[in-house]
Amino acid sequence: MPTYAYACKQCGHRFDAVQSFSDPTLTVCPECGGALRKEYGSIGVTFNGSGFYRTDSRSGSSSVPATPSGDKSGSSSTSSTSDSPSTPAASGA
């Protein structure tokens, strides 16, 4: 269940409350009986599992290397062979 942070508008009392999504929002301060407001902060989000990387949505025969080092034989070797004939001509001129 999520934890919500509340602060009293009158006395400034701050506290956390563990509530279900279906529970109503707290409106009365337990210290002074004043009005409460819900505080919002940043949350940490971690994406785990498959489906969050560029290569996860592609088939096994994609042109993107499986690892950054290019262990997959295919696209990196064919691109370097197509560039090699033009390289000596450019350096000789």
Can you put this structure into words, describing what you see?
- The chain is an alpha+beta fold.
- Helices cover 17% and strands 16% of the residues.
- The chain is elongated, with a radius of gyration of 29 Å.
- The relative contact order is 0.12.
- Residues 74-80 have low confidence and may be disordered.
What's the rounded overall pLDDT mean? 73
Poorly predicted segments: 74-80
How many helical elements?
2
Q: Find the count of extended strands (DSSP E, 2+ residues).
A: 3
What does the radius of gyration come to? Answer: 29 Å
Q: What percent of residues are in strands? A: 15-25%
Shape type:
elongated
Distance between the termini: 71 Å
- The structure class reads alpha+beta
* Adjacency order of strands in the biggest sheet: 2-1-3
- Major sheet characteristics: 3 strands, antiparallel
Helical residue percent band: 10-25%
Order of helices and strands: EEEHH
Condensed summary:
It is built from 2 helices and 3 strands, in the order βββαα. The protein is an alpha+beta fold and 93 residues long.
